[in-house]
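Annex B. Sample input.
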Amino acid sequence: MTFFRLLLVLIFTAITLYTGVVIANHGLNLLPVFFGDMAALAWPGQFNLDFMCMLALSGLWVAWRHRFSGAGIALGVVAFFGGALFLSVYLLVESFRTQGNVAALLLGQQREGR
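Annex B, continued. Sample output.
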């Protein structure tokens, strides 16, 4: 669990720094570039579509883990738009809340043990 937690901190740090550099160099113009690449039907767009599907699965999993409660749906939306930046923090916090119990981390504490 220690290695996993260190990996989450590394992911968060790397994405935060990289995002800061990209924003400094190119501004906050993400959506036109993201969807423009998809509209071009080339490899960058294929990657963006694949990534967006992974974001959707991540958001769905977070909402499901919280039994689609209001907070769970809100967290799922944040997971979709926040990507690995959000998910790294979410999993780090939840890894401590579940005291390193992987089943509870993946399934949520209400489902763990079934």
